[in-house]
Amino acid sequence: MIQKDEFTGNCIVREDSNSVVTLTMDQPKKRNALSSKMMDALLTELNDIAASPNIRAVILAANGPVFCAGHDLKELKGISHCDGHAALFAQCSELMMRIVTLPQPVIAQIHGMATAAGCQLVASCDLAVASDTAKFATPGVNIGLFCSTPMVALSRNIARKHAMRMLLTGDPISAEQAWQMGLISDIVSEDELETATRDLAARIAEKSGSTVKIGKEAFYRQIEMPLASAYDYASSVMTTNMQTSDAGEGIGAFVEKRHPTWRHE
Q1: Is pLDDT at 48 greater than 60 in this prediction?
Q2: List of E strands, 9-56
Q3: CATH class of the region 2-205
Q4: CA 197 to chain CA mean position, Å
Q5: I need a labelling partner for 151 at 20 to 30 A (CA). Which of 103, 121, 224, 256 fits?
Q6: Residue ranges covered by each domain of the chain
Q7: Residue 193: alpha-carbon gap to chain centroid
Q8: DSSP state of 233
Q9: CDD domains in the record, alphabetically (predicted)?
Q10: Which pLDDT tens digit goes with each residue over 184-235?
Q11: Cβ distance 149 to 120 under 8 Å?
């Protein structure tokens, strides 16, 4: 059941359906560029979602023919001083980090093109479902502005030589190539994109919210650690997880051959 459907700052549309929130970028004439206004609207919604325990999954979608064209180049060109550029790129980094640190999983729903910081947005999400006609690129090198911040997310998702080829040539890759590289998790037809993404979000939302939160945080922390440190850390996380009421309920339900009733704590 949809609980809310509203425009936020004329940049995005928010839709709450049960425990899943869909944030749809809604500036198709601007190719859903990550302007300061768009990033501020997304950050505002994500911060609200982070504090909402009843929300257990987020879908990031877009209206129009393009998912996201990256930074608003007219906005960048209109900034005449270094501090202004630094503030804009810092805001973008804050947005990407908010996605990674959000307690709830974030699923990108991609159609059309995702370029530069738009590709970074895809790479920053926990999962990404793309239509089979979607394309991805980091073409900053073509305009004299290397995709340095998109590189951070991209290089943490795909192999180095694949990342460098995208960054050095600016050439777009297909959805099939993106899936083979590990940039996206699923490919579906254009007609199935919204349904497939919603189904995936709903399956995740059925899990224990506290367990998913523990697991997402642990995933991103351990992946940057040396192997031995990662095992030590993951062991401590599992020990803490084992003490939660949902772990007791889930294990008990498995043993008793019944469906668990999650308390999300």
Answers
A1: yes
A2: 12-17, 20-25
A3: alpha beta
A4: 13
A5: 103
A6: 2-205, 209-255
A7: 16
A8: H
A9: crotonase-like
A10: 999 999 999 999 999 999 999 999 999 999 999 999 999 999 999 999 999 9
A11: yes
